[in-house]
Amino acid sequence: KPIFILNGPNLNLLGKREPEIYGHETLDDLKAVCEAKAKTFGLGVDFRQSNHEGDLITWIQEARENASGLIVNAGALTHTSVGLLDALLAVPVPSLEVHLSNVFAREPFRQHSYISKGVEGVICGLGPKGYELAIEALAAMIGEGGK
Ligand code: DQA
Protein backbone atom coordinates (compact mmCIF):
# COMPACT_ATOMS: atom_id res chain seq x y z
CA LYS A 1 0.00 0.00 0.00
CA PRO A 2 1.24 3.56 -0.73
CA ILE A 3 1.61 6.33 1.80
CA PHE A 4 -0.88 9.16 1.43
CA ILE A 5 0.51 12.72 1.43
CA LEU A 6 -2.44 15.09 1.79
CA ASN A 7 -2.19 18.84 1.35
CA GLY A 8 -4.87 21.32 2.35
CA PRO A 9 -6.12 24.75 1.27
CA ASN A 10 -3.93 27.15 -0.70
CA LEU A 11 -1.07 24.69 -1.05
CA ASN A 12 -1.93 24.50 -4.77
CA LEU A 13 -0.43 28.02 -4.90
CA LEU A 14 2.92 26.88 -3.55
CA GLY A 15 5.78 28.73 -5.27
CA LYS A 16 3.52 31.71 -6.07
CA ARG A 17 2.05 32.34 -2.64
CA GLU A 18 4.14 34.32 -0.09
CA PRO A 19 7.43 32.82 -1.40
CA GLU A 20 9.34 34.53 1.43
CA ILE A 21 7.48 32.19 3.81
CA TYR A 22 6.78 29.11 1.70
CA GLY A 23 9.67 29.17 -0.80
CA HIS A 24 9.77 29.02 -4.60
CA GLU A 25 9.18 25.32 -5.06
CA THR A 26 5.79 24.42 -6.53
CA LEU A 27 3.48 21.67 -5.33
CA ASP A 28 4.54 19.60 -8.36
CA ASP A 29 8.20 20.05 -7.34
CA LEU A 30 7.29 18.94 -3.82
CA LYS A 31 5.45 15.93 -5.17
CA ALA A 32 8.53 14.89 -7.18
CA VAL A 33 10.78 15.27 -4.11
CA CYS A 34 8.40 13.12 -2.06
CA GLU A 35 8.10 10.41 -4.70
CA ALA A 36 11.89 10.18 -5.04
CA LYS A 37 12.39 10.00 -1.28
CA ALA A 38 9.67 7.38 -0.76
CA LYS A 39 11.13 5.26 -3.55
CA THR A 40 14.37 4.90 -1.58
CA PHE A 41 12.30 3.10 1.07
CA GLY A 42 10.37 1.05 -1.48
CA LEU A 43 7.21 3.06 -0.78
CA GLY A 44 4.71 4.41 -3.31
CA VAL A 45 3.12 7.82 -2.80
CA ASP A 46 -0.42 9.00 -3.34
CA PHE A 47 0.07 12.79 -3.28
CA ARG A 48 -3.08 14.95 -3.20
CA GLN A 49 -4.22 18.52 -2.58
CA SER A 50 -7.63 20.03 -1.95
CA ASN A 51 -9.01 23.38 -0.87
CA HIS A 52 -12.01 21.59 0.66
CA GLU A 53 -12.16 20.26 4.20
CA GLY A 54 -14.58 17.47 3.20
CA ASP A 55 -12.19 16.11 0.57
CA LEU A 56 -9.41 15.88 3.15
CA ILE A 57 -11.71 14.13 5.64
CA THR A 58 -12.81 11.63 2.98
CA TRP A 59 -9.19 10.97 1.97
CA ILE A 60 -8.11 10.45 5.60
CA GLN A 61 -10.97 7.96 5.96
CA GLU A 62 -9.78 6.27 2.77
CA ALA A 63 -6.30 5.92 4.31
CA ARG A 64 -7.79 3.59 6.95
CA GLU A 65 -8.05 0.86 4.30
CA ASN A 66 -5.81 1.95 1.44
CA ALA A 67 -2.64 3.51 2.89
CA SER A 68 0.28 2.15 4.89
CA GLY A 69 0.83 5.58 6.45
CA LEU A 70 -0.26 9.20 6.21
CA ILE A 71 1.39 12.63 6.06
CA VAL A 72 -0.88 15.66 6.38
CA ASN A 73 -0.24 19.35 5.80
CA ALA A 74 -3.72 20.65 6.50
CA GLY A 75 -2.78 24.30 5.82
CA ALA A 76 -5.08 26.73 7.63
CA LEU A 77 -7.49 23.90 8.56
CA THR A 78 -4.81 22.83 11.06
CA HIS A 79 -5.92 25.73 13.21
CA THR A 80 -9.69 25.29 12.86
CA SER A 81 -10.79 21.73 12.15
CA VAL A 82 -12.11 19.31 14.76
CA GLY A 83 -13.45 17.28 11.82
CA LEU A 84 -9.94 16.59 10.57
CA LEU A 85 -8.85 15.63 14.08
CA ASP A 86 -11.72 13.16 14.42
CA ALA A 87 -10.86 11.62 11.03
CA LEU A 88 -7.20 11.24 12.08
CA LEU A 89 -8.18 9.68 15.42
CA ALA A 90 -9.99 6.96 13.45
CA VAL A 91 -6.94 6.06 11.34
CA PRO A 92 -5.11 2.90 12.48
CA VAL A 93 -1.96 3.50 10.36
CA PRO A 94 0.84 5.87 11.50
CA SER A 95 0.29 9.52 10.64
CA LEU A 96 2.45 12.66 10.80
CA GLU A 97 1.65 16.38 10.59
CA VAL A 98 3.93 18.59 8.50
CA HIS A 99 4.17 22.35 7.97
CA LEU A 100 6.57 24.06 5.58
CA SER A 101 6.85 27.16 7.77
CA ASN A 102 7.73 27.39 11.45
CA VAL A 103 4.20 27.98 12.70
CA PHE A 104 5.53 28.74 16.21
CA ALA A 105 7.47 31.75 14.88
CA ARG A 106 4.37 33.24 13.24
CA GLU A 107 1.02 34.68 14.34
CA PRO A 108 -0.42 33.37 17.63
CA PHE A 109 -3.40 31.78 15.83
CA ARG A 110 -0.99 29.46 13.99
CA GLN A 111 0.53 28.21 17.23
CA HIS A 112 -2.37 25.91 18.05
CA SER A 113 -3.10 22.79 16.01
CA TYR A 114 -6.35 20.87 16.40
CA ILE A 115 -4.91 17.91 14.55
CA SER A 116 -1.68 17.24 16.51
CA LYS A 117 -3.57 15.09 19.01
CA GLY A 118 -4.45 12.72 16.15
CA VAL A 119 -0.92 12.14 14.79
CA GLU A 120 2.24 10.44 16.07
CA GLY A 121 4.48 13.46 15.42
CA VAL A 122 4.84 16.94 13.97
CA ILE A 123 7.55 18.50 11.76
CA CYS A 124 7.53 22.21 10.97
CA GLY A 125 9.77 25.00 9.72
CA LEU A 126 12.02 22.92 7.46
CA GLY A 127 10.32 23.56 4.12
CA PRO A 128 10.17 20.62 1.67
CA LYS A 129 12.89 18.88 3.71
CA GLY A 130 10.25 18.36 6.41
CA TYR A 131 8.23 16.21 4.01
CA GLU A 132 11.32 14.12 3.25
CA LEU A 133 12.05 13.67 6.96
CA ALA A 134 8.42 12.73 7.57
CA ILE A 135 8.66 10.07 4.84
CA GLU A 136 11.81 8.69 6.46
CA ALA A 137 10.16 8.58 9.89
CA LEU A 138 7.00 7.03 8.49
CA ALA A 139 9.01 4.34 6.67
CA ALA A 140 10.60 3.38 10.00
CA MET A 141 7.21 3.34 11.74
CA ILE A 142 5.65 1.22 9.01
CA GLY A 143 8.61 -1.15 9.31
CA GLU A 144 7.78 -1.46 13.01
CA GLY A 145 4.23 -2.51 12.17
CA GLY A 146 2.49 0.84 12.59
CA LYS A 147 0.74 2.21 15.67
C1 DQA B 1 1.14 25.78 6.68
C2 DQA B 1 1.00 26.72 7.88
C3 DQA B 1 -0.44 27.17 8.06
O1 DQA B 1 -0.55 28.03 9.18
C4 DQA B 1 -0.92 27.90 6.82
O2 DQA B 1 -2.28 28.24 6.98
C5 DQA B 1 -0.69 27.15 5.59
C6 DQA B 1 0.56 26.40 5.41
C7 DQA B 1 2.61 25.45 6.38
O3 DQA B 1 2.85 24.48 5.64
O4 DQA B 1 3.52 26.15 6.83
O5 DQA B 1 -1.51 27.19 4.65
O6 DQA B 1 0.45 24.57 6.97
Automatic annotation (TrEMBL):
UniProt keywords, alphabetically: Amino-acid biosynthesis, Aromatic amino acid biosynthesis, Lyase
InterPro entries in the record: DHquinase_II, DHquinase_II_CS, DHquinase_II_sf
Q: Does the keyword Cytoplasm apply?
A: no
SUPFAM superfamilies xrefs: Type II 3-dehydroquinate dehydratase
Per the record's keyword annotation, is Transcription regulation included, yes or no? Answer: no
* Broad EC category: lyase
Domain of life per record? Bacteria
Q: Give the record's subunit note.
A: Homododecamer.
Family indicated by similarity: Belongs to the type-II 3-dehydroquinase family.
**Protein name (Swiss-Prot/TrEMBL):** 3-dehydroquinate dehydratase
